# Entry
Amino acid sequence: MIKIYGSPRSSSGRCFWCLLEVGTPFEAVPLDMKKKEHKAPEYLKLNPNGKVPVLVDGEFKIWESMAINTYLAEKYKPELLGCDAATRGIVQQWTMWSSLELQPPFIEVFVQKFFVPEDRRSQDVIDMAFDKLPPLFSILNTELEGKEYMTGNGFTLADLHVASVASISHMLQYDLSPYPEVQRWLGEMQKRPAHQEYLKLIR
# Structure
């Protein structure tokens, strides 16, 4: 059986969602970060970076959440990657965009709010990170006009990956009301049965 290391509340969350989308059984293996279990020698054999998630499928192991999801889709539900070369390219385009463009500002804010002690927290860092988001959400809002899904051809990893990052806005109380297409689409993604099952794991 597949094993997924990490909490569904962490960056592993998008892997839990993907596992539920592809419908293959899996075992969740939580790690106690306070006890540094992610830095233990046994875990570093799985991921030398000492981070989550890691997925183990038989003798095969893989880390980095979006790479994990690509593997899961390829093996268990290829339509999540797109049904032709053009769609597969677009899926990869938005996957990379969500990781390289949209996620970093959110991570900067997240670190400041949840990991930096209040007396050392920098509001300037938070403000500068939030200032990077409007043009990115404007791009996404325009892309989603008249579309049910990112590629226009059914639910793919493009939807899962971008939604998994965009939804961080709720946790950080970032206002998405200027982007009605994003709000509409994100709401539909969160209604998916697999996402609803994922939410049960973090409640």
Observations:
- The mean pLDDT is 95.
- The domain at 81-199 is CATH 1.20.1050.10 (Glutathione S-transferase Yfyf (Class Pi); Chain A, domain 2).
- The first strand starts at residue 2 and ends at 5.
